[in-house]
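Hello Y.,

Per our agreement to keep a running log of every chain we model this quarter, I'm adding this entry. I've kept the format consistent with earlier entries: sequence first, then predicted structure.
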Amino acid sequence: MSTRRTATKRRPVKRRPARRRRLSARKRAALRRRRRLVLRRVLIGAGSVAAIAALAVLLPMTTAQAPVCAAEPASFPAAGIEGWQGEQLENAATIVLTARERGLGRDGQVIGVMAAMGESSLRAIDYGDWETSGVTNPDGSRTSSIGLFQQQDWWGSIEQRMDPASSAALFYDRLARLPGWQDLEPSLAIHRVQINTDPTHYAAFRSDAEAVVDALSGACESSG
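Predicted structure for the entry above:
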């Protein structure tokens, strides 16, 4: 008769938790410095992202041209509009105001500014094509063009042609006598008034003229 050996159960050995090694004061200080450095880098990175995002929002607002009052030169942007500034903007404003007095809207204002841009770069100059290029009239006589619109003797007196408001009025008087000018391409309408050699000459100034006219369309503050 065989004897059966009863298996004895082993009790699990309880392991004592490992004792945490206590860091020295120097190592704890070094660890704190490392954590602060990581946190600082994270904060700087987040700040940079926020700054870039804010700049992306604000940049279009700062670069967009706000409308100004055509009757108040002090409100004109010092940086200019599409490269036109100072005296040029003042003359453009005079053209715009002259057109408004005649009941002309944006199209008429743009045509006037385009014409002066193409003729004199928006400056009331006292010389013209004869002095710069030796251009003569069809009969061989010297051209007598002066002023914003480079108008010759038969347009009016020297005083009228050299005065921005008067020269603009002379231009619009002739434009008004042109049948259907509103239906013509702006450069062609100006050509019919100015009688220049190239009907497409003024087309290059259209976008600039539109930008200037639109910028000068702001409401003016009442003087009270």
